[in-house]
Specification:
This protein has three helices and eleven strands. By secondary structure, it is an alpha+beta fold.
Length: 202
């Protein structure tokens, strides 16, 4: 797993973002997707909001439904995922000295046709979010299904930017600087699943 961690860190150092396939095995993807559907079927999800407290629901800005993961009530599959994240946090601290101390993650479901418009993950009033992390739980995802993550990379001249498109393939992890890179989730033709969160300094 350290080679996967290393490839992500190399990308972050070079460009501000890293992508690694097989962060989760296909078995882990299937198990987590199953738990997601179980919890959603039990009515545990809610429409995601915007802002620091996420209290304002704005379907014109984002259309996903979420459920925060809690270590105290985590299933074995969820606990194993959070343990992997804890190991990644330790690796990042050893290699990048970011002083990460905490993390928070939630399941995210984007029904067909929904999206999340371009935004920055770090709040103006709260700079604790340092790295954004997305792990996809989609089986047999095709390019034609849509739902790409678009990341906007500022060029050195600070006048122009590049757009990076990441397809939400199951098992793939994307990690990027929360306070630097704006991004958006494009609409998909089928339901799009992920575990999404942030590595924080406090």
């Amino acid at each position: 797993m350290n080679t996967v961690f290393e490839s992500i860190i190399d990308g972050i150092v070079a460009e501000g973002y890293g992508v690694a396939d097989n962060f989760l095995t296909q078995e882990e993807v299937t198990a987590l997707a199953s738990r997601l559907h179980d919890r959603r079927g039990a009515g545990q999800f809610r429409a995601a909001g915007i802002g620091n407290q996420q209290k304002m629901v704005q379907n014109t800005i984002r259309g996903d439904e979420i459920l925060w993961l809690d270590e105290a009530s985590a299933t074995p599959e969820e606990a194993a995922f959070l343990q992997r994240i804890a190991e990644f946090v330790q690796y990042v601290n050893q290699t990048c000295y970011l002083g990460l101390r905490d993390y928070e993650f939630h399941y995210a479901v984007y029904p067909p046709g929904t999206f999340y418009k371009r935004h920055l993950d770090q709040f103006r009033s709260d700079s604790r979010r340092k790295l954004s992390v997305i792990c996809y739980l989609n089986a047999d995802w095709q390019e034609s299904d849509g739902g790409q993550l678009a990341i906007y990379l500022p060029e050195a001249d600070h006048q122009t930017e590049r757009q990076i498109m990441v397809t939400p393939v199951g098992g793939r992890m994307v990690c990027f600087e929360s306070g630097r890179l704006e991004h958006e989730v494009l609409p998909a033709t089928r339901e799009r699943l992920s575990v999404t969160g942030w590595l924080k300094t406090g």
